[in-house]
């Protein structure tokens, strides 16, 4: 079941833990799942990305991002949908994306992303992931291939590790969950 209120006058969508796990996520950042919702326009433009990325017609820099009820927006630079720390899929139990209007008790803005941290259960469970992003395996663009001399994109080799583990401290009462990323 959904722990974040799924019924209100707001227009939006709730993604549960199973959907977050099952949807393809190359970047290992759950904020990229926002693009799966109708009404969003995402761009990879690093220069004007914050101005062009929109959420129900509102610039992404004006969308509030909350984690467990606390605002976690990157306030220093208008970088679109971004938080100071990466929102790893192993960390997130549920996401609620609100296009409009945001309920009064949540405040701030026409659009909002509410993230609920995952918690432990009565069973000990864990996971470990190792994601490799090596641009040597990426295809070159058509434009780069037509140029003489042939242009190759810059090489990048990124490794992303994460370990998650959770379980009961006291059965049916107290739980723990931890993620190392």
Overview of the molecule:
With 181 residues, the chain is mainly β. The relative contact order is 0.18. It has three helices and eleven strands; from the N terminus they run βαβαβββββββαββ.
Overview features:
three-stranded antiparallel sheet, five-stranded mixed sheet, mainly beta
Query: Can you summarize the main beta sheet?
Result: 5 strands, mixed
- Report the uncertain regions: none
Q: Taking all residues together, what is the mean pLDDT?
A: 78
Summarize the helix and strand pattern as letters.
EHEHEEEEEEEHEE
What is the gyration radius calculated from CA atoms? 19 Å
Distance between the termini: 27 Å
By helix and strand content, what is the structural category? mainly beta
Number of helices: 3
Order of the strands making up the biggest sheet: 1-7-8-5-6
Q: For this entry, what is the oligomeric state of its chains? A: single chain
Shape: flat
- Give the beta-strand count: 11
* Percent in helix: under 10%
Query: How much beta, percentage-wise?
Result: 25-35%
């Amino acid at each position: 079941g959904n722990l974040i209120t799924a019924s209100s006058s707001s227009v939006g969508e709730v993604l549960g833990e199973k959907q977050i796990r099952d949807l393809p996520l190359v970047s290992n950042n759950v904020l990229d799942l926002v693009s799966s919702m109708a009404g969003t326009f995402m761009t990879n433009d690093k220069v004007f990305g914050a101005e062009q990325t929109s959420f129900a017609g509102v610039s992404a820099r004006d969308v509030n991002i909350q984690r467990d009820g606390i605002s976690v927006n990157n306030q220093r630079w208008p970088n679109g949908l971004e938080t100071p720390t990466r929102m790893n899929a192993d960390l997130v139990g549920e996401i609620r994306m609100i296009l409009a209007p945001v309920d009064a008790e949540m405040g701030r803005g026409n659009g909002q992303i509410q993230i609920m941290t995952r918690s432990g259960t009565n069973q000990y469970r864990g996971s470990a992931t190792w994601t490799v992003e090596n641009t040597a395996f990426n295809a070159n663009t058509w434009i780069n291939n037509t140029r003489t001399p042939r242009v190759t994109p810059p090489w990048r080799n990124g490794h992303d590790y994460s370990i998650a583990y959770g379980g009961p401290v006291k059965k049916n009462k107290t739980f723990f969950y931890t993620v190392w990323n």
